[in-house]
Design goal:
By secondary structure, the protein is an all-beta fold. The protein has a two-stranded antiparallel sheet with strand order 1-2. 0% of the residues lie in helices and 63% in strands.
Amino acid sequence: MPTDIEPYRIDTLSAPTSINYFEPEGLFSSIIGTYVSQKNR
């Protein structure tokens, strides 16, 4: 049963980002994140 509050369109922007660090001695680390923005129309 449809209702009047359903979105007509959803725009999504997603931007994954990562930072990696490596040392010659074998030490490494990584940070990963994702920015997400959504708009209902």
